[in-house]
Amino acid sequence: MTSVLDVLVGETLDAVVFVADYSQVQFTIDSRPERVNFGAWPEVAQTDRIYRFGEPGYRDAYCELIGRKVTGVVEWQTRGLGIEFDDRSLIITIAAGLAIGPYEIADFRTWIWRSDLPPFGGTS
To answer: Would you say residue 120 lies in a domain?
Structure first.
């Protein structure tokens, strides 16, 4: 599956921004800063551990992605979005929002991923 996030492959993560109830990651693409906003707190999956928001070490694990290159992106129909780095991934799940109805998972440029829209729900 092709994703608008494919443009991130090969790019270096420049910043992680913590906002009151969401987070952002920033990349420089074509000499312009580009941000991906996450409406759900991403998990940081490492080889031997998954860090979740609120757990000890979460902020550090998230910020350790700064300076790393994106090696791949994925959209899982039943899970959410993934931004992959060399030995870890950011995983943005849809599960947290399913109980409360449509839930914004992420937005990037003009693309918005919601739990009730394809590829996660609804119809194409």
So the answer is: no
